[in-house]
């Protein structure tokens, strides 16, 4: 399964989500997940933000090799599940053909069900980045729990 996380610049939220998801996938032995991230207004090749890098070091997920990439039709087409950080990201994903396989992170798996955006820490202090990382980890663990339940025959 190819999982894609989407935010605006692909330097804060979506790279942290990608790294957190990789860490959780390793913990759970989910070798069949291909995890990536992109931005709706990304500069191709930009590094993760300093705040994201710092929080990654604190939490033992490495963002040093991250390079941003612009969301594209090709990325949307090749992804099986696309998780957006905010409503405007979701709209862009759907405009590129992702309807039916794209969701807000907080709304997965039910579109519109009390879903809200993940706060963007850009320009904030380290506590803002830590709070975003906490929320991302909580929500990604919830999504992985739901995905695992979908894979188990007879699970509700």
The radius of gyration is 14 Å
* CATH second-level architecture: 3-Layer(aba) Sandwich
Give start-end ranges of low-pLDDT stretches: none
Per DSSP E runs of 2 or more residues, the count of β-strands stands at 4
Give the fraction of residues assigned to helices. Answer: 40-55%
CA-CA gap between termini: 21 Å
SSE ordering: EHEHHEHEH
- How many domains, as an integer? 1
Quick one: overall form? Answer: globular
Give me the CATH fold name.
Rossmann fold
- Average residue-wise pLDDT: 94
Q: What fraction of residues sit in β-strands?
A: 5-15%
| Major sheet size, sense and barrel closure | 4 strands, parallel
Count of discrete alpha- or pi-helical segments spanning 4 or more residues: 5
CATH superfamily membership, which one?
A: Response regulator
Order of the strands making up the biggest sheet: 2-1-3-4
**Which CATH C-level class is it?**
Alpha Beta
Structural class: alpha/beta
Summarize the structure.
With 156 residues, the protein is α/β, with parallel strands linked by helices. Helix content is 45%, strand content 12%. It has a 4-stranded parallel beta sheet with strand order 2-1-3-4, with helices on both faces.
Would you write up a description of this structure?
- With 156 residues, this protein is of the alpha/beta class.
- It has a single domain, classed as 3-Layer(aba) Sandwich (Rossmann fold).
- The protein is built from 5 helices and 4 strands.
- The protein has a 4-stranded parallel β-sheet, sandwiched between helices.
- The two termini are 21 Å apart.
- The model has no long low-confidence stretch (mean pLDDT 94).
